[in-house]
């Protein structure tokens, strides 16, 4: 059984006991959260597609930890002008574990 759910503006394919890295969510580590923006549910070959969401479907998850992603280097340069700019960015992520898919 799997589902496609909208979490923080992004769509993820989730299954039970799966670990997922999503953009930073509010809540403490160990807290339980629910997502009700479920777009599709596949229950052993029986597919239910929402219009736009599946009615009554909820995804239960637990926040495992808050962390930062790898550094991404942003380098800008204009040739022959002496302009160089180097920036780094680290995105904040939340690691969640999917506990249950309720239809």
From TrEMBL:
Self-association state and partner proteins as the record states: Part of the 50S ribosomal subunit. Contacts protein L20.
InterPro entries for this protein: bL21-like (IPR028909), bL21-like_sf (IPR036164), Ribosomal_bL21 (IPR001787), Ribosomal_bL21_CS (IPR018258)
Alphabetically ordered keywords of this record: Ribonucleoprotein, Ribosomal protein, RNA-binding, rRNA-binding
Entry's Gene Ontology molecular function annotations: rRNA binding; structural constituent of ribosome
Family recorded in the similarity comment: Belongs to the bacterial ribosomal protein bL21 family.
Known function: This protein binds to 23S rRNA in the presence of protein L20.
Any matching Pfam family: Ribosomal_L21p
Source organism per UniProt: Anseongella ginsenosidimutans
GO cellular component terms attached to this protein's record: cytoplasm; ribonucleoprotein complex; ribosome
Presence of keyword RNA-binding: yes
UniProt record, GO biological process: translation
Name this protein carries in UniProt: Large ribosomal subunit protein bL21
């Amino acid at each position: 059984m799997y589902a496609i759910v909208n979490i923080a503006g992004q769509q993820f394919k989730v299954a039970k006991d799966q670990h997922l890295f999503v953009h930073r969510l509010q809540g403490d580590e160990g807290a339980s959260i629910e997502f009700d923006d479920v777009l599709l549910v596949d229950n052993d070959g029986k597919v239910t597609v929402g219009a736009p969401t599946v009615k009554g479907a909820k995804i239960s998850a637990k926040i495992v930890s808050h962390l930062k992603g790898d550094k991404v280097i942003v380098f800008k340069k204009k040739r022959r002008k002496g302009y160089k700019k180097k920036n780094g960015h680290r995105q904040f992520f939340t690691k969640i574990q999917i506990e249950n898919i309720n239809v």
